[in-house]
Structures are given as C-alpha cells and as structure tokens.
Amino acid sequence: MALLEIDNLTVEYPTRFGVVTAIRDVSLKLEPGRIHGLVGESGAGKSTVGAAVMGLIASPGRVASGSIKLTGEELVGADDNLRRGYRGKRMAMIFQDPLTSLDPLFTVEDQLIETIRHHLPFTADQARKRALTLLEAVGIDDAPRRMRDYPHQFSGGMRQRVVIALAICTEPELIIADEPTTALDVSVQKQILALIRRLARRHDIGVIFVTHDIGVIGEVTDFVSVMYQGEVVETGPTELILGGPQQRYTKSLMAAVPRLGKRLPRFPTPGGDIGGKGGDDAEAWLLRRDETSTSTAVINAETANQMLNVDRITVEFGPGGLFGRGQRVRAVDDVSFAIGRGEVLGLVGESGSGKSTIAKSIVGLVRPDSGCIWYGDADLCARDSNEAGAVRHEVQMIFQDPYSSLNNRWRIGDIVAEPLSVYRLAESRRQARALVASVLDLVGVGRENMHRYPHQFSGGQRQRIAIARALVARPRLLVCDEPTSALDVSIQAQILNLLKDLQARLGLTILFISHNLPVVRQMADRVVVLRNGRVEETGEAEAFFNEPQSAYGKELLAETPSLHLLGPVIAMI
Amino acid sequence: MIRFVGVRLFHAAFVMLAVSLIAFSLFRFVGDPIAQMVGTETSIEDQERLREQLGLNDSLPEQFGRFVGDLVRGDFGFSFRTREPIGEMIVARLPATLELSLVSLLLSLVIGIPAGAYTAIRNKSPGATAVLLVSLVGVSVPTFVIGIALIYVFGVELGWLPTFGRGETVAIGWWTTGLATLSGLKAIIMPAATLAVYQLTLTMRLVRSEMLEVMRSDHIRFAEARGLSHGTIHYRHGLRGTLVPVVTIVGLQFGGIIAFSIVTESVFQWPGMGLLFLESIRFVDIPVMSVYLVIVAALFVLINLIVDITYFLIDPRIRVRAREG
Amino acid sequence: MASLARRWRDFTLNNEIVYLWLRAPAAQIATLVATVLIAATLAAPLVAPTDPFDLATFSILDSFVPPVWTDGGDPRFILGTDDQGRDLLSSILYGARLSILVGAAAIAFAVVIGVSLGMIAGYFGGWLDTVIMRVADVQLSLPAIMTALLIDGVARGILPAARHDDLMFYVLVGAIGLSLWVNFARTARASTLVERGKEYVQAAEILGVGRFRILLTHILPNIRGPIMVIMTVDLAVAILLEATLSFLGVGVPASQPSLGTLIRIGNDYIFSGEWWVVAFPALTLIVLIISVNVVGDFLRDALNPKLR
Asked: What is the interface pTM, i.e. ipTM, of the complex?
C-alpha cells in the first residue's frame, strides 16, 4: 500500500473576484523512503498541495473535491482532532525560512521536548535524551551545550537542521518539505539536501519536496511532478522528466534553466521574444554621443580599454556614534578589479561576500572607507568631485527586487521619466514623453502602459520597467545586482535575453552580480569570485567554469546542482 | 546586564535632566518669582535684597545647578499660594494618588490582558465582537463623563458609594492608606473604576492586535504543523510572544494613568497630587507646578526602567545580545 | 451606462478601502453620523435656532426649561435650556463646532511638526535621529493631558489676563498639538525607515535626486496611509483632550462654551435634577467620538491586512 495517495485533489479559495482554483485534479502516489518533488513557477499551486496534505489550508480556502489517503486512511473530511493528532506524529512539515519557523522565546531544547512529550509517552528526561540524539543525528556539533541556546544564536543552516530535528522527532512516516533550502547558500543547501535524503532512506520516510528550483529537484528527488497553474502537467521518475520531457510546458521550462556546463548565446523562448522590437527612436537617442561628453574627452592610453577600475576598496559597517560599541564588520576588504569597455563582468559570491556592497559603492550609495573607484579619469569616491557628478548618470543600477524598486505611487511614465528631468536630458516635455514611450517599447513593456501604476504589472514586467528607467539616464555602465533572483526561471530567461540584446544594441558595459553560477555562466565574459569581502579568484569566464584556480572556486562549482540529468537544450524545443 | 542597566540609567538621567530644565525654565521665566513672593508694599531695595539672597542674580547655569541640587536633596521650596513647603504638600498627597493609580493599573491589566487574548483567539466570534463593541465605548467615552455617570447612578440614585473623598485613612509612618478601612475601600471603587476604563480598553486592544500578529507568524504555523494542542499554541507560544511588546506599553499606561488621575481626582474630589496640580495651574502657582512635573517625570522614568529590565528578562534575544555585545 | 457601471464595479473591486468600506456597515454608519455631525456643527450659524453668544437672544426667565417631550417643555427649545436660559441645541451645535475646530487645528499642527521631524529622523538617521527621538521620549514621558495643562498654565502666567480669553483658542491648539506630535513622529519615522530601505529610494539616490525632494515626492506618498490612520484616531483623542481641559476649567472660556465646558456647567446641576443640561452635550460628545473612532478603526484594519 502506498504511504500517501492523492487523487484528483482540487482546492479552492473564494475571493472577491470569484472562486480561484489553487490546484485542480492533482494526483500523486508516494512510497515510503522515496522523495517526490513538486516543481513549478510561482502560482503553480505546489505549496497548496503540501498544505492540503497537512490539513493546514488557510481559511477561507477549502478542499473542494478529491481524496488524500495516508496508508489507505482517508484524510479529506476526517475529524479535526484526528488530523491534529497525525500532524507532528505521523506527518511533519519543514518550512522555507528557518529563522521564523522557531519560536524565538524558547530554547531549542524546550521546543524539542515540548513536541516529543506532546506526541509520545516520554518523561522529561527521556525526551531530553531523545532530543540530544536527534540534534546529533542532524549534525549539530556540541549538541549538549547548543541545545540550551535560543534559535537566533544559530546560523541559517544550523537552524534548518534544528527544524528538521523537530520534524523527525516523533518518527513521522511522511515529511512535507516546502522550499526548505531556498533561503540558504549553495554550500549549506548541498548539506541539507544530503541530510534529507539520508534521513528518508534510513528511516523509510516519504518526503514531498516542494521547490521552484530544477537543480534541487535533480539533486534530491526520485520522482517529480511538474505543476503549472494549479495542475500537474507531467509526472514520472526524475531522470526521465528532466532528461526527456514530453509536454510543451515542461520542455520550455527545462529549456529556460541556465546550465552550468554550457554558455548559450540566447535562451530559446518558444513563445517568441517579448520586446527587442521597436524602440528605434530610443535606440538612436541612446546611441547618439555628444563629442563634448566628459568621459570620452581625455582617455590616457593605459586605461583606454577600461571602463571602471576598482582600486583596493575597503568598506566597513558597524556601530558608531554616541552609544556605539561592538566590532565593526569589514564587508569589503581590499578589493580590486577592472571592467573593460563593452564587457560583462560577473561578480559571484555567497551571502555576506560583499558583492552588493561593492555595487553600492560603485553607484555612490556607499562610500568606501579607503581605496578609490575610477570611472575613466573621474574618481567616483572623491568627496566633492564635480567630475564624479558629471559622469554619475553614466553608471546606473538594476536592483534585485522589482516589487520594491518601483515607487508604487507613481505612474510608469513618470518613473521612467524621472532621470530625464533630474539630468535635464530632454529638450522639451514633448521630447521627454516621446522618449519614455519609445524606451518602454524597447524593453517590451509597451508605450500604451505609461499611465498605469506598478502594482498592475508582474515581476518580470516590473523588472523591464526598472531597466527602462536605468536606460533613460544614458548609462554606459549598468550595474545589475541579482537582477533575476526574485523571478521565475522562464521570466529570468526573458530578462537575461533582454539584457544581452540591449548590450549588443547599445554597446553597454555590464557588471553582473549574482550568487547563481549557472546564470553568471550565461552572461559573463570574465568573473570575479568573492568570499567574505575578499577576492578569491579573477579570470576569464570560460576558463573559470572549466577549471577554477582557487580552492573556493572549485568548492562553489562542486556544490552547485549540476543538472547533469537535463537533456541538451536543442532537444527541448 | 550591568552594561544594559547602565545604558538605561544614562537615558533615564538624560530625560530627568531635560525635564528639570523645563521645570527650571518654568520656575525662572514664567512671571517674576520675586513679584509672586512679596506683597506690593515691599520696597524695591528689599526686593533687590531678596533677589540677591535667592541667588536670582547669579548666572543661569549656576542657578540651574542649584535648582537641580535642591531637587536631589529633596528641598522643593515653597508654594506661592499657601506658603507651605512643597515637600510636605506632596508627601501628604502622594499616597492618595499612588494608591488610586496602582489599583486602576492592576484592574486594567487583570481584565485587559485576558480580554485581549480572548478577542484575538476567538477572532470574529460573537463573544469577541461584543467585547470589541464594549471596548469601543471604553475608548470613546471621556473619563470625566464616566465619572459623572457613575456618581449619578451609584452615588445619587442608588446611594451605595460615596461620591467624593478617600474615606477613612490609616497612617503607616508618613504613608496614609485608604485600603485598610471599609470606608476607604468603598471610596476607591468608583474613582479606580473610572480611571481604569480607558487604560483597560487600550490594554485589551493592544494585546489583541499584537496577538493577532503573533498568531500569523511562521513559528505558530510550524507549531500547528507539529500538532501541538490549541492551548499550548495559544498560551505558551502566542501570548508569551505578545507579552514582550505589551510590557513596554505598561510603562506608557502608567503615564496615562497618572495624567488621567488629574481628571478623576477632580471629578471625585480625591485629595491627591492631581488635584494639587490643578489648583496650582488655576492660581499660577509655578513652584508647585514645576515640582509636580519633576516628580511625575521621575515616577515615569522609574517605571520605564523597571519595564526595560523586565523586557530584558522576558526576551532572550535582548538578553543574549547584551551578554555577548 | 453599462460601461459606467462596469467601471464603478472595477473601481470598487480594485480599491481596497472602498471595497472593504462597502462591506462594513458599522463603518458606513459611523462615516454617515460623523459627516452629518461635523457638517451640522460647521454650519451652526446657519442651522442653529439661536446664537448662544448673543446676549440679546436669550433670557434668564427661560432658564432650565426641560426638553420638549417632557412635562413643562417649550417648543422653542427642543432640548431645553441651561441655567442662563440659552437654547441647549444651539449651544451644543456651537460648542461641538468649537470642539471640532480645536481638534482639527491641533491635529494639523501635530501632523506638520510630527511628520516632518519623523521623516527627517528616519531618513537621515545618525545624530539627528538620536536628538529628535530623545526629545520625543521626553515628550512621551509627559502624558498628553499634562503637557496641555502645563502649556495652559504657562500661558496663564505669561499672557495678560485681558488677552488670555482671546488667545485661549490658539493656546489650546498649541497645547493639544504639541502633546500629540510624538505619535506622528514615531509613525512617520518607522514608515520612513521601511521605505528608505526599499530599492526605489536607492534608485532615486543613484539618480542624484535631492534628499528633500526624495522625502517629499517619493517617501511621503508611500507613508500617507499609516499617517491618515493616526490622524483619524488622534482626532478623537484631540477632541477628548479639549473636552477634558474645558471640563477641568482650563480650556476655552465660559463665554464661548465648547462641549466640555457645557458638561462642566451641567455637572453642577446633576444633583438638583436638571439632567438634560449635562446629558445632551455628553451624548453629543460620545456619539461624535465613537463615530470618529469607528472610522479610525476601520481605516487601520483596512490598511493593515495582517489584522484581517
């Protein structure tokens, strides 16, 4: 008998706009000791499946039809108390964010003992012993001491191990893991995935693994169901689905996944490209360069091919002022690199590596404590530099979160027009409007949307609007800080294509910052690898991805899910 | 811990210094102290001598220093109106105000916290809606109207409770208490209830909104996913998380209670500091006003200090940060 | 027509606050009551039967006439008269007008000071933030009534008695406004801190937009929601404060009674049976404040989806 059997499950949410079907006719079967992945983009309904199994669908949502059987026992419509008795005992759940999953006011020990004693007839001492064994089993060092600590005293990865310990403390038969590694760095992700896999095998636990990340699916699951808009479009053994998808949606999804092993000139987009057409006026305007332009005026021979030269910068953060105490943290430590004209430089590193701080230093949001940043002959860090002010508009930035990078109270047209008015780039209001319209066409948003507000657009469209705003400032250097990490992979492919097109059409230089190595591989000509604020390695992209020189570079590449299961892109289309 | 308390003490001292400065400016610049003190028949020479004696010709920082020094030694000067030493006036009235305030604070917490938790846990149930409706009246009806209504019903119509004063009091050292006699207890019921209503409602609404927020957080969802019982989730994890911000509010509450005690004391002719302050304002008795200001601020700062330390003991995040930092 | 109906439907579906308001009968009633009350009192000179400030229009002979529906009522005085023979309905209309004007002016004052200081503290941070928030702490350690009483007391000490009555309106507005600015400052600061961390502000900074222009054109429009909530909630508080001060005898002078003054006057006759003199002003005050509070609560819940 299957451990879990879901049949034609449909979940609905009544909203003011009518009833929304979150998932429709979803079926799957899970055997003990197996890991079944649910993968899809945002809005696919994958998390709803997990919540429905646990009986934790937030009101006013409800299971409209279908059945969920745990070892043959029907759960849909079962008594509330029975289901609560099963939660934590027979089936457990792991959430995405280990920071908020634990009650900050109780020690790890308290929370473990509480859960164990709630479900099992243990004395406090027995429960404590079990808690200790569990923490050791999930790889917490020095468990007897650490178990008395509060959640905030653990690092992200360690916290997720504690959450896993809590999930398995009553020996459940089933675990629902909802994006359990999404908030973690790749090195930690690899360990957590290995832990989940080991626990599933050793204790014969069935796992439903919900994620948006195809790489993670390839790494950890035995079976996979691909979901799209609430329905399962394709299901089967992981290597078959990843290696030879049959459905159109699955094919296009796999095609949009960036490969670590190979650089593509463009992502294939079966639905046709958005944007890249039209916007010729804007292109002409952007390409027109005044002879009097400051940065082209004097270029000495040595730096002729350098757009930007970051020279030994150091940035420290920390308490200051009247009540300042504690250690100042060195976010960027003696970092140097240069970007050549028309080049795409990839800046990679895990969280805390200082890559965002470097981006902020270049665009002037953060002032380095020492070192300088040369843009042509202008020092961008100089305190009261007129030359820096004059070239400032030539360096623009694209941000990570398109939901926060646009002012929600402004119309799209006004947002894009702001640089024109700040730098007085347009000769008249009419010219400004015409330019904004043309640039919106250029990035594929469409000029007819000028009068709408940001909340009416999707994340991908918002990112295009942010790109349009940056373009209007007539930049030569575009700093892109994780420009696609908040986006779905198919949208990511479109945005990356757009950036490649713009770079080709406008001759832009791009500093591309990302934690995601496969994405960087698709974009960068050269890479700089950062770790804890220091440069670990610099080199040509092809050389780095084929044979990294530093130990850390090797490690990073090894920890990135390799996607060896995916078939070649050409076969997908 | 010591460092934490040290920083808080520093903040407290800063607030007290600022309040003293306000009190000093009141005392020094609002009207001419000499003109207030002496009759019109006093000669200019005598006035000038008095001015010199009192040090009013010294530099302002010196005067301020002396003002603070006097306050610290407990020498509060004399009232313009009654010519009595202010220290004695305050000591005579402090117990009445403190007893009234503490009883109503207790009332508002003992009723307000459970009521808030109830309305959050049973959100949208008929019972919770009813409590919320009542609470709306609580924040909307002015304190003095509640007092008047209570007097009318229980004092005038029913004649059950006294409508003014503290009743019989018992002296314990310099402290006089009304809580030890039957008439004193009867006398405090209406004023304390009047004073408590507004604060009670505020406490309740605050606990409710904080708890609703906590109940939506991930760790509560995770606790549910672990199958813990409703009781454990609501009271052990939910209410405890709620109490952290609520504790801070108790400090603010106390300030509100002291402030509204002025109104309540006025309605019930309660012989406390509020009544004294009100009289001093009507008669522009500046020294009493400024001393009242300083004493109330000191009470307030003290309560906040206690609150901060409690906060520190409840929330391990602050505790650990202080230990490590 | 059909397209108009559709546009109305789209509007009510997409505008969060309108959508929720149309489904909250309590908020609808409260909005209606508050609007009618405020309109009636602002139009008092037009709708009131008599002018209670005009000594020629009332006579001591008409004193203590009970409401019209009780024995001894007089159709000229629907709600009866007070100790001086003034028509109570007119007094209430004029009194509420004064209460509302003081409350609204005090809130405007508090918003201007509080929001600008709060935004500056939140955006610039550093020592400016420290100083402003320390001052706010000191202000907070003096509860609103006490601040208002103190300012009032000081004004009595400084202003000559003759000018005192004339200036009392401004003293009250200043006193209440000063005691409430901290709420706005804290809210504005907290919201500004959140907005400052968002990338659209950084985008404007990269463009080199001036800091004050960023505050005014980018941040202010994004924090107006919470500020509007505090404005509504604190309008009720301001009206309450004014009534309390007037009740304590330190508010507006008795020659121009506000609701609080009327209640203080009426309070003296509670033992002798003329209940209407205190009951109707008190009732008006309570209804006014309850309706403003219901609207405030509605706005707060509507703008804070977490509480729904």
From this structure: 0.82
